[in-house]
Fold this protein.
Amino acid sequence: MIIIMTPGASDEQIAAVEEKLSAMGVEPHVSRGIERTVVGAIGDESKVEKELIEALAGVENVIRVMKPYKIVARSYHEADTVIDIKGIPLGGKTVQVISGPCSVETQEQMDAAAKAVAEAGCRLMRVGAFKPRTSPYTFQGVGVDGLTMFRNAAEKYNLPIVTELMDVRMLDTFLEHDVDVIQIGTRNMQNFDLLKEVGRTHKPVILKRGMAATVKEWLMAAEYIAAGGNHNIIFCERGVRSFETYYRNMLDVTAIPVLKRETHLPIIIDPSHAGGKSWMVPALARAAVAAGADGLLIESHPSPCEAWCDADQAIDPQELKTLMGELRGIAQVIGRDL
Ligand code: PEP
Ligand code: MN
């Protein structure tokens, strides 16, 4: 940790910083320059409460040298982590495409959706039984019965199921239904109690980026899950809020190489909630694979015009199949497969 003093900091103020650092268990090292003094803290930085140093008189800035995240950091595990989802690897050489409708509607809809997802070549399916909607007056998801309908449809094609957990009170139900991957949605990225609870399970977790979260906040949210013992975390970028109104969110492709550098955990991209329109999905999906994403989360529906939720952004079975072919070509060019 480096503590930069203000230009006019007095000897007493510098001594107070040294004293505080010693009391916190690190060794202060003072460098006096012509303009200002810098105090280095040598030792285990995690022992130092940054805010308590910042609050001292004469302190201008406190810079951490170490990353605040530990388990999710690349330095914790040099190699890329590959997450095993019922025998399907996510995070290795193979780019995985996870697809399905935004929401469970009926058993017939689920059966048709699972067939389309499997026939397109996707190996995992994602559908929501509980939906976080902006308005309390719109469809909120079919609820627990949806988990059963989803499982019934997906198991015919050996597709592991991915679904969103919004409420910690539903976690036991999710475990009873043996949900294969728990999705934490953008609105819950910093629901720390929910993160702690999924951290106590060993279920793979897809952690969507909060719609206005920085990369550091996102990594720290993942650290909450990891700190509980669950290291099976998959980051999912789904677009961030911006000033632009021509699309729903702005897909942050830059987050892919940044996360690849900062963490050993896989990152997938959701082009559907980023663009918000089905016609944007192929372009964003292709860009994501080219930029090194480990997978995609794509909303598809057997009949998009009839979807109960996010109808505008769902692609149809034929579009999914065509897109899979294009993505396979891009994956091969960069030495991966799909
Ligand atoms: C979803 O995946 O259907 C969803 C609501 O996504 P997000 O949390 O990214 O808005
Ligand atoms: Mn959706």
